[in-house]
Design a protein that fits this description.
Belongs to the TrpB family. The chain contains 17 helices and 14 strands. By secondary structure, it is α/β, with parallel strands linked by helices. It has two domains: 154 residues, Rossmann fold (3-Layer(aba) Sandwich); 209 residues, 3-Layer(aba) Sandwich (Rossmann fold), CATH 3.40.50.1100. The longest helix is centred in the middle third of the chain and has 23 residues. It is globular, with a radius of gyration of 19 Å. The chain binds pyridoxal-5'-phosphate. The site of pyridoxal-5'-phosphate has 21 residues, from α7, α12 and α16.
Length: 401
């Protein structure tokens, strides 16, 4: 019997990360707050996704893309030297080893395949670090689709290499000059663009955010991380399940996919946010980009700009399911600073020969801190998702180190 069903309180389905409730809700979060034309488009995406996930043809085609093009399954790497230094047993789920260098490809291949099934010829996407844009451009090239990627001007400066990669792959990159010129504004712009292009285009959302069905659908496409890790832990760990499961949280897709594999176990789930982008840890209830969730806001309820050294964590909110998991107490959300993340990146490079993305370095920074202050008791087993590789951050790091 599952642990959750022994306790009073929330329904096990919610705690074990199944389907959202009526109207795309995770508890009081989620929903579909969008203009009428997008509500209809979201309904079509939901219907297509429900059909596709039941279709063995779709499932096999996606499994093949993930295996032959994305390089799955990714290894579960024991971080031997770092584990000895920290006094915990740390295992890394290596999404940095996927094609294009981050977990984003898992979701994008799923949505791109869904788009072709729906007869859509173009993918629209927003991007922060550029990883989702690169993954979208890659999947579009692979499946013979067009790609239009919206990206904040500030991120275009910070992530010049990824901008070049997207253009090399044949995608159109549209600079967004409004607001903080980062991910939030790129997302708004991409949604606005989709309103006028729903017939021929699929909006390929890059995280577990946006209107229903995106938070659910993206988590399902990222569930492969958690499912693989669960099987790998069952084979590798004496207890079969780690004591702790840790992942960084921007919108929350790598964390949601990882948590989904362990939600029905005794593992303690921890999402690590950037100090300046802590939607789950410090946000308040609001509506943005089509869903009700936790967002950083000022006294007047205006969305506050996020600030993080990691472009992929520079989002002022968090996906609705994370807000729900937090409220249930099933997952906790903590924050680390830019400096802690940079130090963690250097430490992983020196101890294990892995240069992580600065986003992923946030998760490690918390592991390092918690191993030191008793938050992770000595000898605990810790599964951490290493969401991406650090190549894109080399120029940022070069200025600091
Ligand atoms: C985009 C990105 C993130 C943050 O996105 P989530 O949806 O929270 O997973 C984390 N790590 C890397 C490497 C990324 O590219």
């Amino acid at each position: 019997m599952r642990e959750a069903s022994l306790r009073p309180g929330p329904a096990p389905a919610a705690a074990t990360m199944g389907e959202p409730g009526p109207r795309g809700r995770f508890g009081g979060y989620g929903g579909r707050y969008a203009p009428e034309s997008l509500v209809e488009a979201c309904r079509e995406v939901e219907e297509a996704f429900r059909e596709a996930r039941e279709d063995p043809g779709f499932r096999n085609a996606l499994a093949e893309l993930l295996a032959l093009h994305a390089g799955r399954p990714t290894p579960l790497t024991p971080a031997g030297r770092l584990s000895r230094e920290l006094g915990v047993r740390l295992y890394l789920k290596r999404e940095d080893l996927t094609h294009t260098g981050s977990h984003k490809i898992n979701n994008v291949l799923g949505q791109a395949l869904l788009a072709t099934r729906m007869g859509r010829r173009r993918l629209i996407a927003e991007t922060g670090a550029g990883q989702h844009g690169v993954a979208t451009a890659t999947a579009a090239a692979l499946l013979g689709l067009e790609a239009t990627v919206f990206m904040g001007e500030r991120d275009i400066e910070r992530q010049a290499l990824n901008v070049f990669r997207m253009r090399m792959l044949g995608a159109e990159v549209v600079p967004v000059t409004t607001g903080s010129r980062t991910l939030k504004d790129a997302t708004s712009e991409a949604m606005r663009h989709w309103v006028g292009a729903t017939a021929g285009s699929h909006y390929c959302v890059g995280s577990v955010i946006g209107p229903d069905p995106y938070p659910w659908m993206v988590r399902e496409f990222q569930r492969v991380i958690g499912d693989e890790a669960r099987a790998q832990c069952a084979a590798e760990l004496p207890a079969g399940v780690p004591d702790h499961v840790v992942a960084c949280v921007g919108g929350g897709s790598n964390a949601a996919g990882t948590f989904a594999g362990f939600a029905d176990t005794t593992a303690r789930l921890t999402g690590v946010e950037a100090e300046g982008g802590a939607g789950a840890a410090r946000g308040r209830l609001g509506v943005l980009h089509g869903c009700r969730s936790l967002f950083l806001q000022d006294g007047d309820g205006q969305i506050v700009e996020a600030h993080s050294i990691a472009a992929g964590l520079d989002y002022p909110g968090v996906g609705p399911e994370h807000a729900h998991l937090r409220e249930l107490g099933r997952a906790r959300y903590v924050t680390v600073t830019d400096d802690e993340a940079v130090a963690a990146a250097v430490r992983l490079a020196r101890a294990e020969g892995i240069v992580p993305a600065l986003e992923s370095a946030h998760a490690l920074a918390w592991v390092i801190r918690a191993a030191g202050d008793g938050g992770l008791p000595a000898g605990s087993t810790v599964l951490m998702t290493l969401s991406g590789r650090g190549d894109k951050d080399i120029s940022t790091l070069k200025e600091l180190l």
